[in-house]
User: Which sequence fits this backbone?
């Protein structure tokens, strides 16, 4: 299961009710900040999640409304010492702009408040640990080096308690060993293997996050059967020409992608100030009913859909 917290949901510029793009994806004890628009540090404070363990930042692309908040965040870290190291993952063009921002403006030769590791993104696997696989894929937007992210729980075999009872496997460490894939010997001398008490493999929860995006034909298979899809909806269909010009999607296009890919739930963000939330939801829900137009500080649990 994943939890998503929307810290900022506005497109290009903030509004009274929406800050600039930033979301936190949580899994067990891990937290990942995706994008860091201007004002993200204030949104983090207002959300109540704090800065602890927020030491991995993934940038979808290098436009300023997705990276300017890094300056304030690093400045705050230098005073509060909330973390001792920070990873910033980004494509080449975004990384170049981030280096200029942090080391040319914020730090200007000063020693960073923590170890900062700049990690270039290439398509494929980024992180695999603690039952989680995080990978990335290219996204078509304005400019090069735009990426989306796939969060996946690794497949697991469910424990069958009724089978364990039938075999007389006692509760406690012995069952834990079996769940961890080790065979055990019971007090009466019988050998029990994981196959005896574990069911067939089941896929884990799958969450796909897409930042700014101008076309979706390359995303259908990537998003196939995702339990949750987070994607932009900057425009409405009457202004589809503008969406194409600036490399963005309409709410209808996002909903059509969700429908084609068979996703569980669609979460729309990057909402333009020119539209009301109701208008965005109505356009999308006419195509794909399981849709939410995210607001700042919304929290959702993403679970595997049977």
Assistant:
């Amino acid at each position: 299961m994943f939890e998503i917290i929307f810290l900022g949901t506005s497109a290009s510029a903030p509004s009274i009710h929406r800050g600039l793009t930033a979301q936190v994806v949580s899994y067990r004890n891990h937290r990942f900040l995706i994008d860091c628009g201007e004002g993200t540090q204030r949104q983090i404070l207002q959300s109540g999640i704090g800065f602890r363990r927020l030491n991995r930042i993934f940038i979808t692309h290098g436009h300023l409304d997705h990276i300017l908040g890094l300056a304030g965040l690093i400045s705050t870290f230098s005073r509060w010492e909330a973390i001792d190291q920070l990873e910033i993952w980004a494509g080449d063009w975004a990384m170049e702009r981030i280096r200029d921002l942090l080391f040319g403006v914020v730090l200007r030769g000063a020693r960073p408040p923590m170890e900062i590791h700049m990690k270039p993104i290439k398509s494929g696997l980024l992180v695999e640990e603690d039952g989680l696989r995080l990978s990335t894929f290219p996204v078509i937007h304005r400019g090069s080096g735009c990426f989306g992210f796939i969060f996946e729980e690794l497949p697991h075999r469910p424990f069958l308690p009724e089978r364990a009872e039938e075999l007389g496997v006692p509760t406690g460490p012995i069952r834990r060993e079996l769940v961890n894939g080790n065979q055990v010997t019971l007090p009466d001398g019988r050998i029990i293997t994981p196959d005896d008490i574990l069911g067939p493999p089941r896929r884990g929860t799958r969450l796909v996050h897409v930042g700014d995006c101008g076309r979706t034909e390359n995303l259908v298979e990537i998003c196939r059967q995702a339990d949750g899809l987070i994607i932009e909806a900057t425009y409405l269909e009457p202004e589809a020409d503008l969406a194409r010009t600036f490399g963005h999607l309409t709410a209808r296009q996002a909903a059509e992608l969700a429908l084609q890919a068979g996703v569980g739930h669609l979460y729309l963000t990057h909402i333009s100030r020119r539209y009301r939330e109701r208008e965005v939801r109505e356009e999308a829900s006419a195509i794909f009913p399981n849709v939410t137009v995210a607001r700042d500080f919304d929290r959702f649990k993403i679970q595997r859909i049977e």
